[in-house]
Amino acid sequence: MDNSSFCRCERCQKIIKQPHPQADMPFYSKGTDSNYFFTFVNEVAKHVKQTNPDKRVVTLAYMSHAYPPVGFKLESNVAVQFCFASNRAPYAGAGYENDLAALKAWADEAKESQRPLYLWLYYTFPVETANNGKYHCFPGFFAHTVADQFNSSTSTATAACSTVVTARRWSPMSPIN
């Protein structure tokens, strides 16, 4: 959901207004609506578990629900795909570090719960990022930030791995092992 046009009923508003430690952050990725969003995901997952116990519900950790919820655990059949919104802008400093913190929070949650964690890496938006940064992105593809991505990703193995895999998949001479 690319907006926060959530239900306005009293029951939903009560969940929306629950405090979250990452709610009032100045970044795109935050936890403002994590409890509300993941409460809904959990309800769907409970029903799926009853009717199709071998199936999962896959959802995005994104925008105002980028951080894990607080005060409750996700159902065991929920898989999360973290939207790493700043992966194509490691020079964004605090915003990039915030996304790494959110990714680490999900990685910790996934390790504890044994649930799969996937990444949505936004490699489909090079022109948008370049226009916002006032540079040309073609014929290269963020070549000016590759070293920074490698250097800043060492604390999060998943981010580093995704950078390597993504870079190697564009080279037909480099099979991924």
Helix content: 40-55%
Please state the overall shape, judged from the principal axes of the Cα atoms. globular
Mean of residue pLDDT? 79
Query: How would you classify the helix and strand content by structural class?
Result: mainly alpha
The gyration radius over C-alpha positions equals 18 Å
Span between N and C termini?
35 Å
Give me the secondary-structure topology.
Elements: H1 10-16, H2 34-51, E1 57-61, E2 78-83, H3 94-113, E3 117-120, H4 126-133, H5 146-152, H6 157-169
Detailed description of the structure:
There is one protein chain. The chain is mainly alpha-helical and 177 residues long. The protein has a domain at 10-124. The protein is built from six helices and three strands. It has a three-stranded parallel β-sheet. β2, α3 (94-113) and β3 form a beta-alpha-beta unit. It is globular and about 50 Å long. The protein starts with 9 loop residues before the first helix and ends in an 8-residue tail after the last helix.
Please name the defining characteristics of this protein.
mainly alpha; 41% helix; 6 helices; 3-stranded parallel β-sheet; 3 strands; single chain; 8% strand; 177 residues
